[in-house]
Amino acid sequence: METNRQKKIGSVLQKDLVDILQGExxxxxxxxxxISVSKVSVTTDLxxxxxxxxxxxxxxxxxxLAAIKTNTPLIKHDLSQRVRxxxxxxxxxxxxxxxxxxxxxxxxxxxxxxxxxxxxxxLLEKRKKS
Length: 130
Description:
Layout lengths: L3 H24 L6 E9 L5 E9 L4 H10 L1 H11 L9 E6 L2 H13 L18
Parallel strand pairs: 2-3
Antiparallel strand pairs: 1-2
């Protein structure tokens, strides 16, 4: 369970990371690309921040995530300049793609009958039996 301190630091980092990432997209003039930071969770010792990104269109996700991971030191430096009055030390950033929207869309399609797993059992993922 996250403490209040972890939640506060996570929200500060989330707000500033959104500004940094969306600012880079605008500055580089990349059309039809939306990056949002869906969640930032910080470890109890405040040394690592796990950042979950939602990227639209999802096809560009893996390519963009690789670019963000290679530029993590620059992003951390920009972040440290923004939060220098609030945090003594900026946590190390670890980026992941948040696929919860895809999961919700899959459930929505199943509920509306577009892809009904009861009528078409091939839609269900096969689980390995141990």
